[in-house]
Structures are given as structure tokens and as C-alpha cells.
Specification:
single chain; 422 residues; 3-hydroxy-3-methylglutaryl-coenzyme A Reductase, Chain A, domain 2; Alpha-Beta Plaits; 4 domains; 18 helices
Length: 422
């Protein structure tokens, strides 16, 4: 029978039946299927409620970043990531900041935007004014959708309205500004926007198409700052090197992208660990980096009057503690317990501090020993395992790979053979 991906009723099938079909289609070995059947903290029943067509779960290592002092409070920070050296780098960078008080972080609050797109209107500016005249009604209708959120002090607070000139004529875009409290807020703001659509059409005579949140959460910013003693860092030359590296990123988008990727290494690792939406955070951060019309670094680095290094970071941070995987995935719940956070604002501020620490670690490595030394020494262990090393052999093979400066699978196999013959 010819293979086909058109499988009717796959989502209704039992786990074993789905696995059998995938095994047959893809030629999986029985050992592959056994791996997919292994359940960790996230069991099949829970996973099956989270997404569609589940056949298994995929685990990531969870490490703990140490030494974080944020707004005068000590934190152990869980990070879920596959890339070597990220957790160690964040921990080391956080340690360097402690002499000057660690990280100081503020935020603008848990505010999200729902966008409502209105078209087929005769006069955009007149329509804009009509809608402003209805602001109290708009807020009332929006807030009637989520009494629980209102009870917690959140809800729709105001509207902002823009007229966009497009090839299809004027388009009015209503921004519903919503305080989502401890939720990321996507479901809440989308529900409000949906409820408002027919009323806006009735009031304006136009047609509403899109009504959905914006992931450019520029009203939900996290701002982090740290100072690093120049002596702890390694001297004035390293301070100058880090500032030069930042200046390179500020002048060149090709470098800025990699600069920001280093920031996101730390941020996304905590976002994953706590069950938040990585795609929303990435999209918002990179859009914010390009808000001037040119892609730029999210952080800045300079020095104070004494010559100590000073770093800042500002970016959108739409994370929550209620709803989504954070409340469903047991592993995410444990990560939140480790952090000991009491609000989504606090979680966002911790994540901002981790991003700045990760950036500091990367820039320090680039301006001193180079990024590869620490990274490759850890990566060498992965290569050793890929070559077949087990137990104590893993460390020995990795050590020799680093000494040889040839961190490759073929060389690892050669070393493994040499060690076996000794």
C-alpha cells in the first residue's frame, strides 16, 4: 500500500494506535517507539490535553543558574536548554554583579494590546473620533467578558486608535489596552476583541476583520540594570573590550542579531522552564529591537565615573503564571516553585535579569578567551557520547578532544579506540 499522510480520525485514536501508524509510516524501530512511550514529569494524559495528535514527549535538561541577586532578593533560576555553557555562563556573570548589588529591575506592568482591524470606511479620521466617543461603552463591553480579571484589578483600561493608509484605502486599528494581571493574557484580550467586533461594525458601518492580540508588547516592558566592578571583571581592558563589542552591535545589524541571540539564550531558557510562550517572547523582542527602523541591540554597555562596567536591557516581557502550560505541565509548576515568584511581574523581572547576565557572559568571553573555549569544552562531552563513549570514558574523550582542538565525532571515535587499546 502506498504511504499517505491523509489519516482520517488520527486525533481520536488511542496512544498505542497512533504510535503504530507513525512507526509503520516512518520505519521506526521498536526501541524508538519505547523511547516515545517513556513518561517523565509530563505524562501522556496531560500532554494529550495540551496539543493535538500526541505520540510522546520530548525532554530538555533543566539546570539551575546560581548567584542571582535581583532587587535585593536571592534567586535560584531554573533554565531549560540544550545548548552547552549557557547555565554556567549565566551563573558566572551573576556572580560578577554581586559586589555592586546584583541586578536592579523595573517593569511597566502586565499590559497587553488587542488589535481590532476596521475596513470599508469612508473617512478614517471621522471614524476614529466616533470610536473615541464610545470609549466607555467599549471598555464596559470588553470588561463584561472577564469578571474574574476585573475582580483581580485587571481589565481593559483604555483605547488607542490609529488610522493607517494602505493600498486598499484607510484602515482604522483600535488598540484595546488591557491589564492582564498574572496571565500572559492572549485568551483574555482575544475574547474581548471578538466581543467588540459586532458593536464596532454597527457604530461605524465598517467591516471588522482581524481581532487579536499583538505580540509587540511594548506596554509590558522589563528594564534591567547592573554594574560590574572593573577589578572583578578583570581590569579596564576588558571593560573597554565589552563596550567595543556592544558598539559593534549598535553599528551593525549583522552583529546585533547575534548579540541579541545571546540575550535570548538566557531569556528563552527560563521561559521554557516556566511553561511560557517562547514564540511570543522572541517575536516581541526582535520587533522591539527594530522599532527605530533599524535592527539594534536590546542591551547597552558603558562605564560609570569610576570606570566600572554598566549594562542595561529593555524589552517586552509577556509572561504569566496562570493559564497555559505553566498551570498544566508539572515540570513548569516545579520551576515556578524553585523561583518562589509571587506574580507575573516578578517572573518577568527575573527573566530580564537573566537576559542581561547572559549578554554580559557572552561579551566577556568574546573579548577575552573567545566564545569557543568554554562552549566547546562542554560540547565535547556531547560529541564523546555521540561517538559511543560511556561512563568515565566520556570525560576522558572530551578532555582529549579539547586538547587536540578537534571537537569532532570522527576524532572522538579515534580517541575512544585508542583508550580501549590501552
Amino acid at each position: 500500500m502506498e504511504k499517505t499522510s491523509r489519516i482520517s480520525g488520527f486525533h481520536k485514536m488511542e496512544w498505542a494506535e497512533r504510535l503504530k501508524i507513525v512507526q509503520s509510516f516512518s520505519g521506526l524501530h521498536n526501541d524508538d517507539v519505547k523511547l516515545l512511550q517513556k513518561e517523565g514529569a509530563l505524562n501522556f494524559e496531560t500532554a494529550n490535553r495540551m496539543i493535538e495528535n500526541v505520540i510522546g514527549t520530548l525532554q530538555l535538561p533543566i539546570g539551575i543558574a546560581m548567584n542571582f541577586l535581583i532587587n535585593g532578593k536571592e534567586y535560584l533560576v531554573p533554565m531549560a536548554i540544550e545548548e552547552p555553557s549557557v547555565v554556567a555562563a549565566a551563573s558566572n556573570a551573576a556572580r560578577l554583579t554581586r559586589d555592586k548589588g546584583g541586578f536592579f529591575v523595573t517593569s511597566t506592568g502586565p499590559v497587553m494590546i488587542a488589535q481590532i482591524q476596521l475596513v470599508n470606511i469612508a473617512d478614517g479620521n471621522a471614524t476614529r473620533m466616533v470610536l473615541f466617543e464610545r470609549e466607555e461603552e467599549i471598555l464596559s463591553i470588553a470588561n463584561s467578558q472577564d469578571p474574574m480579571l476585573i475582580g483581580l484589578g485587571g481589565g481593559a483600561k483604555r483605547i488607542e486608535i490609529r488610522v493607517l493608509s494602505t493600498p486598499m484605502g484607510d484602515m482604522v486599528v483600535i488598540h484595546l489596552v488591557v491589564d492582564t494581571r498574572d496571565a500572559m493574557g492572549a485568551n483574555a484580550v482575544n475574547t474581548m476583541a471578538e466581543a467588540l467586533a459586532p458593536f464596532i461594525e454597527e457604530w461605524t458601518g465598517g467591516k471588522v476583520y482581524l481581532r487579536i492580540l499583538s505580540n509587540l508588547a511594548d506596554k509590558r516592558l522589563v528594564r534591567a540594570r547592573t554594574t560590574v566592578d572593573k577589578k572583578s571583571l578583570g581590569g579596564e581592558e576588558i571593560v573597554e573590550g565589552i563596550i567595543n563589542a556592544y558598539t559593534f552591535a549598535a553599528a551593525d545589524p549583522y552583529r546585533a542579531v547575534t548579540h541579541n541571540k545571546g540575550i535570548m539564550n538566557g531569556i528563552i531558557a527560563v521561559v521554557i522552564a516556566t511553561g511560557n510562550d517562547t514564540r511570543a517572547i522572541e517575536a516581541g523582542a526582535h520587533a522591539y529591537a527594530a522599532q527605530s527602523g533599524r535592527y539594534s541591540p536590546l542591551s547597552t554597555w558603558g562605564k560609570d565615573a569610576e570606570g566600572n562596567l554598566v549594562g542595561t536591557l529593555e524589552l517586552p516581557m509577556a509572561v504569566g503564571l496562570v493559564g497555559g502550560a505553566t498551570k498544566i505541565n508539572p515540570g513548569s509548576q516545579i520551576a515556578v516553585k524553585i523561583l518562589g515568584v509571587q506574580s507575573a511581574i516578578e517572573l518577568g523581572e527575573i527573566i530580564g535579569a537573566v537576559g542581561l547576565a547572559q549578554n554580559l557572559a557572552a561579551l566577556r568571553a568574546l573579548t577575552t578567551e573567545g566564545i569557543q573555549k568554554g562552549h566547546m569544552s562542554l560540547h565535547a562531552k556531547n560529541i564523546a557520547v555521540m561517538a559511543g563513549a560511556t561512563g568515565n570514558m566520556i570525560d576522558e574523550v572530551a578532555k582529549r578532544l579539547v586538547l587536540d582542538k578537534k571537537v569532532r565525532v570522527d576524532r572522538a571515535k579515534e580517541i575512544l579506540k585508542e583508550l580501549s587499546n590501552e
